[in-house]
Amino acid sequence: MAFLLLSNGNGASFIGVTGSPGDMGRTCTACHVGADLVTTYDLSLNVTTNIPQGGYVKGTTYQITITPTASSGATEFGFQITAENALASKVGVFTSTDANTWTDFLGKYLTHTFVGHEHITNWTFNWTAPATDVGDVTFYIAGVTGVENVSGGTTTIGTEMKLATYHVGGVLGINEAQLLNFSMFPNPSDGQVTLQLPSDANQAKVRIFDYLGKTLLQKSINQSNNTLDISNLTAGIYFVRIQTDSKVGTKKLIVR
Predict the structure, then answer these.
(1) Residue 149 CA to its chain's centroid (Å)
(2) Which CATH architecture has domain 183-255?
(3) Residues 65/37, Cβ–Cβ less than 8 Å
(4) 0.85 exceeded by the pTM?
């Protein structure tokens, strides 16, 4: 496999290739170039985690799982992940939990190992949130897939690359860590969305942002004024975050 740039003996890369701003957009194409790049496997990277979408608790360790999927024929997968704030600074610490991943640069990157690329179904590892408030955090992931070189070498034949991001809100305070349970309808929506607050929440602030954490709409709502005009949003997936004085909640919004 040629998913690696510089090896530490365990198959992990020491060069950031996640496509993040801090990596200056550098990706796996730094290694896989020209005819080696194809788009025949329909690769996707699915991220699941117990990090609250609305934000993280300082110093808390969370679990992240990345599941690659591709069409038949792809036999090997690789990836690298990093976490950055809005200033493109690396934040938090990744920790490997098995032989399928390896950490680089004092835990600022986590990459697959040689063991963890053949016929892999997913990678699971930990990320510990920073001990101080660093603002919103975006996880940047670069993944590749292909088939093993039949000659037994280290080159992957016909590699496809995919980039993915996963965004979480800023740090949660002691009171904010309580989850706000609200309703949102219709969802999917194509013009307006109504947010129904719980009976004990008279006023709240709402923010709609995309996968990169960019705020697209922000306003205050209450029990009677709770319908948002989202007709200016293009079709896609967004996140709605509502915050009261003591609670916060985030839900996914699909715009058609």
Answers:
(1) 30
(2) Sandwich (2.60)
(3) no
(4) no
| Residue carrying structure tokens 């990596």 | 23
Query: Is residue 113 within 8 Å of 11, Cβ to Cβ?
Result: yes
Question: Which pairing describes strands 156-168 and 203-209: parallel, antiparallel, or unpaired?
Answer: unpaired
Over the stretch 47-71, which tens digit does the pLDDT of each residue have? 999 898 778 888 889 999 999 988 8
Q: Does domain 28-172 have CATH number 3.40.50.300?
A: no
Cα distance between residue 122 and residue 163, in whole Å: 16
Coil, strand or helix: which one is 171?
strand
Residues of the chain with CATH 2.60.40.4060: 28-172
Using CA atoms, how far residue 238 sits from 86, 111, 138, 235, in Å, is 18, 28, 14, 9
Phi and psi torsions of 36, nearest 5°: -75, -15
Is 145 within 8 Å of 41 (Cβ atoms)? yes
